[in-house]
Amino acid sequence: MSAGVGNSNDQTRRHNLSTILTFLHHGGPQARAQLTGLSALNRSTTGALVVELTELGLAFETEPADSGRVGRPSPIVNANANVVAITVNPDIDAVTVGVVGLGGVLHHLVRRETDAVPTVGASIRIVQEVLDGLRDELAGYRVVGVGIAVPGLVDSREGVVALAPHLGWRDEPVARPFADALGLPATVANDAALATVAESLFGAGRGVQDLVYLNGSASGIGGGVLAGGVMLRGRQGYAAELGHTLVNSSGIRCHCGKRGCLETEVNLGRLLEVLGRETAGLDEVDALIAAVPDARPEIERQLDVLALAIGTFVSVFNPESIILGGFLGSLYEADPSRLRASVDAASVAGLAEPVRLERAQLRSRLLTTGAAELVFADLLADPAGTVF
């Protein structure tokens, strides 16, 4: 997740290319002089790496704004945002397709609602239709691959969704069918884990080493945990299924077989019901909450239950920050002070006080940005060795 430090004495320039491109991708445009300082490389080495990245079509230089200083200012190096990833997020009521460029630049975001829970095949067809509609724009891009963010247990190495209960996917090959249909490399991972990466690189979690991220969508609640800057993954890669934290032992039965899981008690469907809607894009939920005062009791109930779970996470993970995405961000925005007070009351004395409660900054771009990081990982690791 970080660029590391370059080494002007190692025998492979690829490490140094990775260092420079990663700084540009995650940190935005930088002057050559800044890159030299960040990478700990000498100026001539940095210059040669920038030239190579430019020749590879991964970066370009622009003239800096006139600073009024005497002497020739250092050129500004930019990641090439026309090098893109296609992203896919299937959910129970829609499939969202994105086109994201290096530097986290969102070129396109298309949400296609579905009449039924989409299968893998239906998801592929929707993506093909969206990309066909963007054919003219895509002609100007260099596409690296496809990143798929799925709400469920995912074996990324095999490209298989072990279990996505809300989608009805079990032991479902996903990466290979997408790759075959689209003619592009495809990778799949858990949506909340990808969102955690995205928010830690480009959003509210930037620079935070210990955080808990909670994502709320139509498929339930997922999570991700950074501990000491490292993603908590578990032996099989299924760690941080935080939506199945027990919050009400006499509550609604969850699809996992237990009663009173967080995602059954704090639930987008139950929220939309009191808001008078069957479905809504996550960008719409804030406005709906503001427009329906009668929904207040349900909002307060969900906030108080969410606080119980967060109090547990504070004790278990001792984070610096807890970030709320999806409809959980909307709940938080509806009454931040109530959630804060409830979390303090639900936590071990003193532990919650220094913990920041924040809404995800990337909002509707969150899963799209995370899925793009999945695609860009190999390119950032070895810019000169990635063929696309």
From TrEMBL:
Question: Per its UniProt entry, which superkingdom is the organism in?
Answer: Bacteria
Please give the InterPro entries that the UniProt record associates with this protein.
ATPase_NBD, ROK, WH-like_DNA-bd_sf, WH_DNA-bd_sf
Q: Which SUPFAM superfamilies does the entry link to?
A: Actin-like ATPase domain (SSF53067), Winged helix' DNA-binding domain (SSF46785)
Family as reported in the entry's similarity comment:
Belongs to the ROK (NagC/XylR) family.
| Full protein name | Transcriptional regulator
Q: Which organism is it from?
A: Subtercola boreus
Query: Lineage of the source organism?
Result: Bacteria, Bacillati, Actinomycetota, Actinomycetes, Micrococcales
